[in-house]
Specification:
It is a single chain. By secondary structure, this protein is α/β, with parallel strands linked by helices. It has a single domain, classed as TIM Barrel, CATH 3.20.20. The protein contains 18 helices and 13 strands. The strands form three sheets. Strands 1-2-3-4-5-7-10-11 form an eight-stranded parallel beta barrel, surrounded by four helices. It has a three-stranded mixed β-sheet with strand order 6-8-9. Strands 12-13 form a two-stranded antiparallel ribbon. Strand 10, helix 16 (about 410-425) and strand 11 form a beta-alpha-beta unit. Helix 4 (about 75-90) packs parallel to helix 6, helix 8 runs parallel beside helix 10 and helix 9 (about 185-195) packs antiparallel against helix 10 (about 210-235). The radius of gyration is 22 Å and the shape is globular. The protein starts with a helix and ends with a helix. Bound molecules: 2-acetamido-2-deoxy-beta-D-glucopyranose (NAG) (3 copies). One 2-acetamido-2-deoxy-beta-D-glucopyranose binds near residues 391, 431 and 433.
Amino acid sequence: MFYLKIVVLCVLVVLAGAERRFPDGFKFGAATAAYQVEGAWNVSDKSPSVWDIFTHDQPHAIADGSSGDVACDSYNKWREDIELAAELGLHFYRLSISWPRLLPNGFTNIISEDGTRYYNDLIDGLLEKGIEPVVTLYHWDLPQNLQDLGGWTNPLIVGWFKDYARIVYTLFGDRVKTWITINEPIVICEVVYTMGTFAPGISSPGIGNYLCGKNILMAHAAAWRVYDEEFKPKYHGKVSLTNQIFWMEPYSEEFIEEAEFTMQYAAGFYSHAIYTKEGGWPPTFEKYIAEKSKREGYPRSRLPPFTEEEKEFVKGTHDFYAVNHYTSRLARSLQPGETAGLWPMFGAGEIDVFLDVHPDWPQAANSWFFVNPPGLRKLLVWLKKNYGDLEYMIIENGYSTREGDINDSKRIQYYQDHLEQVLLAIQDGVNVTRYTAWTLFDNFEWTDGYTSKFGLIDVDFNDPSRKRTLRNSARFYANIIKTHSLDDINTINKI
Ligand SMILES: *[C@@H]1O[C@H](CO)[C@@H](O)[C@H](O)[C@H]1NC(C)=O
Ligand SMILES: *[C@@H]1O[C@H](CO)[C@@H](O)[C@H](O)[C@H]1NC(C)=O
Ligand SMILES: *[C@@H]1O[C@H](CO)[C@@H](O)[C@H](O)[C@H]1NC(C)=O
């Protein structure tokens, strides 16, 4: 009997252990973005991006009045960055290409030799270390001259972006096999046009954000189709966009419908057109905005419709589903006289849902960031239910602090808790194949400047050499990568 008990115990331990291992072939990486790390904003023939102009003209819009002029100086220190990525054992490194560095006037008649050399060096350097480059075409640094022509609200940008994408695939497609077309459309359209707080800082709530939204989906589809038709046959890579999605939890049982409607806004706005059989806008949301626009006296919906032809054009333009995730909200209906609560990512008052956070969710270093690890699992399960049994990639997830402590135990806890939820989602049957830490090292965090730090690696921004120092979370993450599991985390935690 005693013997049997020991056998049972051993089996249980083995099973529990197995559950904490990531599937074979699961890949771990870390991400950065061009404007946040490169610096060298005015070298050689590079032209200014909207973020260069915005930070220079409106320093008061940035928490510490800073800019990405120098940032981590990765334009000059890319060799060291690759060394650090290799030290962590990353399987892949996600970087973005600066459109105005590669194409100084935004169009394709002039291709910067300097920009081409920089990205070739970076990509080749990563490959030499056995690290896969995962490349984002657009991470928010639009050439200012294209913004002057209306940027993402001008439908012509669909063609401009397609031309740019073709150049990037032509230059780097022989070595880059995983592409993200556009990073977080919701931020590009809502934080720029609804809130007016991110570069170029244009306030046009309910109009500009929707023009932007439609053009972004069309531009993504155009860039996906160029790859699919002209490059996929010889390079066999994969292309998708990545969405940043807050998990919307019902405030209580009676608000399941409100939470679901909000998810159709938060996730569906940039997914439904691409990932569903019917295509176009999420129907509940499209109807809602049409009716609201009518009540407001507009002759037609503020949300521009897709023609049948456009629906077909956008539908199915994916090779995987990519998601960036940080935080959750509690959703419930508005009480009479109440305005729409904590609503950082979308137009206050556009939908009559109150979004709150649970008092037990600790706040990280950003106004919008409250920690709720189970939200990640629930989100992944929701995505699979809505968009199907696809390959899912977590393309950003990470934690911010105000202090730059090397012993960053809260960041370690965040990674541990979220990776546990990834394992649970995999057990739920969601085919998650990649996890990407945001971010490899502290960098220019948009309007938070250098006041919020997301890095596994500390960067000393007062040091002209931008000294990099591994935090404990970097060692913690390296160990998870090495063991391919969470089995070892208790020992690692004691570092
Ligand atoms: C580039 O910008 C820096 C400020 O970040 C300035 O000191 C430098 O003179 C500029 N270089 C050129 C070539 O304009
Ligand atoms: C997950 O997706 C990858 C890439 O498409 C595929 O190779 C793999 O077989 C899938 N795994 C499962 C369990 O469906
Ligand atoms: C790191 O911080 C944690 C929590 O504050 C503490 O328990 C631990 O002793 C610290 N480790 C080191 C090496 O300072």
